[in-house]
Design brief:
Radius of gyration: 11 Å
Shape: globular
Oligomer: single chain
CATH architecture: 2-Layer Sandwich
Number of helices: 2
Strand content: 25-35%
Strand order of the largest sheet: 4-1-5
Order of helices and strands: EHEEEHE
CATH topology: Alpha-Beta Plaits
Helix content: 10-25%
Number of strands: 5
Largest sheet: 3 strands, antiparallel
Number of domains: 1
C-alpha cells in the first residue's frame, strides 16, 4: 500500500494557533480559516496521508498541527 492510500487524522491545537494561514496557503483543500476565531481549522478530520500534509504540519510556526496515521 502506498503512502498516499493511507488515511490520517488531522487535528489543530486552536489554543496554540496564531492564525498565520500557512497551512491554508499550502493545502487549502484540507485547511481553512474560521471566521469566528480567526484561526485555522480542518475541512475534515480524516484525509489521505501525503508528503505535502507532513510538510504542512512541519512548517507550522506554532507546531499546532498533529497528523496521526490510522
Amino acid at each position: 500500500m502506498s503512502e498516499t492510500c493511507r488515511r490520517c487524522r488531522i487535528t489543530i491545537d486552536t489554543y496554540e494557533c496564531n492564525g498565520c494561514e500557512s497551512c491554508v496557503s499550502l493545502m487549502p483543500e484540507l485547511f481553512r480559516m474560521s471566521e469566528a476565531t480567526g484561526k485555522a481549522e480542518t475541512v475534515g478530520d480524516i484525509a489521505p496521508c501525503s508528503t505535502n500534509l507532513d510538510r504542512t504540519a512541519a512548517v507550522c510556526p506554532q507546531s499546532c498541527i498533529a497528523v496521526e496515521r490510522l
